[in-house]
Amino acid sequence: METLKSKVTSKGQIVIPKEIRARYGIKKATIIHWIQKGEGVLMIPDSEDPVMAAKGMIPKSGLIEKLLQYRRADRLKENGAQNR
Fold it and tell me: Which residues contact 1 (CB under 8 A, 6 or more apart)?
């Protein structure tokens, strides 16, 4: 796991590294949830698609990809039923 750093300004602001913003779809006006957990803080960005937002949070489990496959299959079934 790669470690990235940010510095807190005198106003309590931080810059989220570009790599993290790109990976999790964090853009201007994205709502960020801060959760105190154990000895650290978990930062979770709001997303239009919560499944995509969670992608990458559980490395190498395959659960997110499996769920996305099921969702794609359901959409194909729905579209096929609507075209009849």
Answer: none
